[in-house]
């Protein structure tokens, strides 16, 4: 058996992979990311030790599977990365799968588990399809390597019934698995562990309001180390708006949008059944629809480039504020920390400052300088609370879904 772990985080427009040593804790030896798969040309970011490479790719990579194959070959053939030259050097491949249905934990892939996950594809065609394509590819091309799937939804198996249940016909709901699942759980698991270590407090005594704000954005109320509510739902469309996702809307809006919206999307294939409405709300909405850009760093600037940029920013702030208030009350006001994570949460000082100002009534106060400076490269958790604050701590956590998967793989198998 090989000695290294490959962790794969496949999205609809990007694929991120990291190679780790099989030790506790795992050490990253190389990290590669292909983005822009849906908006060519694709770009590669590759980091191996101190060497950082960024380049536009000439290759046509139309799907996340193409991108994964490309990354794998590039790493296997890199003479400077001789530790991993073929499947013989790998012990495990960990895959981030967004929707895990009722799975409470990670699962090893075999014919039975793969079939079960394929059945779930219908619940999350936009998210699970790419990840499972890569799982199938690994089964074929790296047959000696065990694949393990980690689920974003697993962290939220602790949601109380009254949170996870939609008030609809319960027979129909049960027959079709229609309930709140919640996502970004691999990230929340990383955040919970890192923040409790930082605070020096046991997980089962820690209450957090955690926010994973990236292209997809969600929030989570964690009580005594367990998820008690989260903003995403049956699919990652619910809750906060994202780069291309609408977030919560009145469900009736779908019927008013256009009569075409109920039909199957032109992008649907034999394996992937999605309606035009689902595609519009997932891929053509959010701040892209308001401003034309999916890059929040162009929106969250001191002098907004346009009224629509300001509107996009204000909408995100308003929806986040709503969840902070909601979760603060659900946690009975006992909040150890409010945690910012995800590409935007970690990098946008303006978003953090704006929210902190609006949360003054909850005792929230941040240190302006620490907020602007943000965390150092290797600083997993940074405290930006104002020294004199008696309210909840305000933390930035540089979350890492690949690490979380590798960590659990080592923990459970070493
Ligand atoms: N300085 C910044 N200010 C605001 N947003 C930023 C900044 N840097 C990066 N981002 C945004 O972070 C988002 C990507 O976050 P990430 O968590 O990596 O998303 P995903 O994993 O869903 O692709 C993008 O919208 C990007 O524009
Ligand atoms: C669940 C989800 O929305 O994932 P991402 O933020 O990676 O798109
Ligand atoms: Mg992400």
From TrEMBL:
<dbReference type="GO" id="GO:0000287">
    <property type="term" value="F:magnesium ion binding"/>
</dbReference>
<feature type="binding site">
    <location>
        <position position="16"/>
    </location>
    <ligand>
        <name>ATP</name>
    </ligand>
</feature>
<feature type="binding site">
    <location>
        <begin position="212"/>
        <end position="216"/>
    </location>
    <ligand>
        <name>ATP</name>
    </ligand>
</feature>
<dbReference type="InterPro" id="IPR023865">
    <property type="entry name" value="Aliphatic_acid_kinase_CS"/>
</dbReference>
<feature type="active site" description="Proton donor/acceptor">
    <location>
        <position position="152"/>
    </location>
</feature>
<keyword id="KW-0547">Nucleotide-binding</keyword>
<dbReference type="Pfam" id="PF00871">
    <property type="entry name" value="Acetate_kinase"/>
</dbReference>
<feature type="site" description="Transition state stabilizer">
    <location>
        <position position="245"/>
    </location>
</feature>
<keyword id="KW-0479">Metal-binding</keyword>
<feature type="site" description="Transition state stabilizer">
    <location>
        <position position="184"/>
    </location>
</feature>
<dbReference type="InterPro" id="IPR043129">
    <property type="entry name" value="ATPase_NBD"/>
</dbReference>
<dbReference type="GO" id="GO:0006083">
    <property type="term" value="P:acetate metabolic process"/>
</dbReference>
<dbReference type="GO" id="GO:0005524">
    <property type="term" value="F:ATP binding"/>
</dbReference>
<feature type="binding site">
    <location>
        <position position="96"/>
    </location>
    <ligand>
        <name>substrate</name>
    </ligand>
</feature>
<keyword id="KW-0418">Kinase</keyword>
<protein>
    <recommendedName>
        <fullName>Probable acetate kinase</fullName>
        <ecNumber>2.7.2.1</ecNumber>
    </recommendedName>
</protein>
<comment type="pathway">
    <text>Metabolic intermediate biosynthesis; acetyl-CoA biosynthesis; acetyl-CoA from acetate: step 1/2.</text>
</comment>
<keyword id="KW-0460">Magnesium</keyword>
<comment type="similarity">
    <text>Belongs to the acetokinase family.</text>
</comment>
<dbReference type="GO" id="GO:0006085">
    <property type="term" value="P:acetyl-CoA biosynthetic process"/>
</dbReference>
<keyword id="KW-0808">Transferase</keyword>
<dbReference type="InterPro" id="IPR004372">
    <property type="entry name" value="Ac/propionate_kinase"/>
</dbReference>
<feature type="binding site">
    <location>
        <position position="401"/>
    </location>
    <ligand>
        <name>Mg(2+)</name>
    </ligand>
</feature>
<dbReference type="GO" id="GO:0008776">
    <property type="term" value="F:acetate kinase activity"/>
</dbReference>
<dbReference type="InterPro" id="IPR000890">
    <property type="entry name" value="Aliphatic_acid_kin_short-chain"/>
</dbReference>
<keyword id="KW-0067">ATP-binding</keyword>
<feature type="binding site">
    <location>
        <position position="9"/>
    </location>
    <ligand>
        <name>Mg(2+)</name>
    </ligand>
</feature>
């Amino acid at each position: 058996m090989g000695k290294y772990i490959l962790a794969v985080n496949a999205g609809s427009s990007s694929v991120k992979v990291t190679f780790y040593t099989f030790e506790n804790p795992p050490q990253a030896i190389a990290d590669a990311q292909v983005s822009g798969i849906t908006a060519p040309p694709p770009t590669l970011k590759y980091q191996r030790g101190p060497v950082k490479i960024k380049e536009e790719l000439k290759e046509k990579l139309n799907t996340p599977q193409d991108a994964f194959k490309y990354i794998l070959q590039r790493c296997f053939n890199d003479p400077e990365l001789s530790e991993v030259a073929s499947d013989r050097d790998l012990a495990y491949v960990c895959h981030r799968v967004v929707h895990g249905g009722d799975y409470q934990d990670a699962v090893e892939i075999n014919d039975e588990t793969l079939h079960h996950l394929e059945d779930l594809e219908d619940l999350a065609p936009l998210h699970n399809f790419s990840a499972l394509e890569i799982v199938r590819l690994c089964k074929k091309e790296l047959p000696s390597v065990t694949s393990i799937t980690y689920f974003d939804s697993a962290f939220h198996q602790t949601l109380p019934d009254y949170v996870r249940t939609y008030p609809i016909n319960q027979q129909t709901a049960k027959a079709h698995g229609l309930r709140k699942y919640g996502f970004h759980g691999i990230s929340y698991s990383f955040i919970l562990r890192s923040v409790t270590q930082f605070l020096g407090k046991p997980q089962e005594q820690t209450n957090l309001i955690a926010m994973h704000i990236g292209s997809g954005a969600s929030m989570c109320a964690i009580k005594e180390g367990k998820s008690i509510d989260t903003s995403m739902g049956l699919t990652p469309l619910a809750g906060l708006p994202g780069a291309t996702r609408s977030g919560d809307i009145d469900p009736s809006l779908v019927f008013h949008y256009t009569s075409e919206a109920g039909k199957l999307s032109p992008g649907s294939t034999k394996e992937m059944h999605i309606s035009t409405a689902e595609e519009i709300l997932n891929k053509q909405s959010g701040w892209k629809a308001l401003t034309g850009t999916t890059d929040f760093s162009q929106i969250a600037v001191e002098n907004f480039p346009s009224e629509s940029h300001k509107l996009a920013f204000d909408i995100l702030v308003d929806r986040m504020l709503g969840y902070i208030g909601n979760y603060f009350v659900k946690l009975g006001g006992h909040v150890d920390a409010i945690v910012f994570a995800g590409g935007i949460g970690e990098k946008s000082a303006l978003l953090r400052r704006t929210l902190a100002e609006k949360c003054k009534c909850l005792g929230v106060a941040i240190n302006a300088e620490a907020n602007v400076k943000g965390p150092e490269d290797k600083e997993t958790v940074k405290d930006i609370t104002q020294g004199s604050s008696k309210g909840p701590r305000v933390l930035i956590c540089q979350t890492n879904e690949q690490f979380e998967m590798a960590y659990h793989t080592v923990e459970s198998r070493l």
